[in-house]
Design goal:
single chain, alpha+beta, tt1808, chain A, 6-stranded mixed beta sheet, two-stranded antiparallel sheet, 3 helices, 12 strands
């Protein structure tokens, strides 16, 4: 049962989200500022992940590696994963179907949201693989969906992991993201 004070909290929708300046995410009607901008380590790792995903997907005509883009899950939830792979044709202003693979890179301001809120959201929405990357520890926690629940596949530092994206199978070398 909702707490009586919860009724007093504002509840935002995609229509509200579209009016905001700057980078935001909206999860269950609650806005999250995506500021400050990601730091150099975060950007370097994200760029390396993007490059490695693009390279791994070069032979797959179905799947596409993307950097942050709106994924509108419903009217009160819009997220922007750091790196993602979709295995379907997308068009328009936002994604409307679950990506096959998502990487979130932790920062102090987003760690709790990435490890908890987004973990459960992505699990519920059927994202096949979720990777939580910790730049400080140089550690990536790799989860795969099994019977509707995420199970940890590995803690990766310099290991490779095979991702079954449904349309293709890719090998991802985690040792190459930290440089």
């Amino acid at each position: 049962m909702a707490h009586p004070r919860d009724q007093d909290l504002p509840h935002y929708t995609y229509e509200d989200y579209m009016q905001w300046e700057g980078r935001w995410e909206l999860i269950h009607g609650i806005p999250y500022a995506m500021t400050p901008a990601p730091g150099i380590a975060h950007q370097t790792i994200s760029g390396n992940i993007s490059w490695l995903l693009k390279e791994a997907l070069s032979d797959c005509a179905e799947c596409l590696a993307l950097l942050p883009v709106d994924w509108k899950i419903d009217e009160d939830t819009v997220v922007q994963p750091d790196n993602l792979v979709i295995c379907y044709k997308a068009g328009g202003a936002y994604l409307s179907k679950a990506p096959a693979l998502i990487f979130e890179i932790l920062s102090e301001s987003t760690a709790s949201k990435d490890k908890n809120t987004k973990f459960h959201l992505y699990e519920r929405e059927g994202v096949r693989h979720y990777v939580i990357v910790d730049p400080r520890e140089q550690l990536a926690k790799v989860y795969s969906l099994h019977e509707g629940k995420y199970i940890k596949v590995m803690d990766a530092t310099d290991e490779s992991c095979e991702f079954d994206l449904g349309k293709c199978l890719i090998n991802f070398d985690f040792s190459r993201i930290w440089a």
